[in-house]
Amino acid sequence: MKVLIVDDHLMLRKGVLSVLSNTDLEVIGEASNGQEALELVPKLKPDLVLMDINMPVLDGVEATRKLKQMYPDLKVVILTVSEIDKDLFEAIKAGADGYLLKNLGPEELVSSLRAAISGEAPISSVMAAKMLKEFRQPRANT
After folding, report:
1. Of 140, 33, 53, which Cα lies nearest the Cα of 98?
2. Which of 38, 44, 98, 107 could disulfide-pair with 122, CB 3.0 to 4.6 Å?
């Protein structure tokens, strides 16, 4: 399974590359912003894009939206430090297949990416709790 890593921090990209190096997940490329990801996806044809949210040039949410419009079967998993509800919901609306926080361990990252490729929706438990809270909110009658 081919993975493209998109993050503006070189150290994080190299760390993820190291974590995935001895697995069935092959890192085929790296990008430092969403625009670079849009340029690399048609060339490299990854199965999954691991995408940060806050990046220069083109952020991860907008890049996800564009990628999913062009390649609806492409898996895009957000990997971010953002625990902001709005970021979670915007990423999901843009078509993200998962939302992971960067504080997860190496094994959890690998299993989450495999889950996404298999059609599951990996979401960090803190963010899943925020989703539940949002959906449990009473709605005004319209």
Report:
1. 53
2. 98
